Predict the structure of DUF3168 domain-containing protein.
Amino acid sequence: MTEDDLYPLLAPLAGGQVYPYVAPLGSDGRSSVTPPWVIFSLVSDVAADVLCGQAESAVSVQVDVYSSTITEARTIRNMALDALQVLKPENIVKTPGYEPDLHYHRATLEFLVIV
């Protein structure tokens, strides 16, 4: 699994403001996009070993939604989970958050995909 597998599923969210790993930054090092936006990351890819070699991989995925309100962030996070159901996510974790420096709410989605 790569970023190219995730992007098409998430691209319609947040008005198309969906980015791998980091939102576009301005010359001041701050985000150059206005909320809401979605960041997705492939955190790890752990292969299972069996006697005849490697079997499957457990890919850890994280999706962060940034918004001016927690309600909007949570709604988009739930839309992301719906869009990603085709991957059969497992061990789903939803976490709320807040970025005090930017005054943005964050709704995080973490899960595993077995490939």
Notes: The mean pLDDT is 94. The radius of gyration is 15 Å. The longest helix spans residues 70-83.
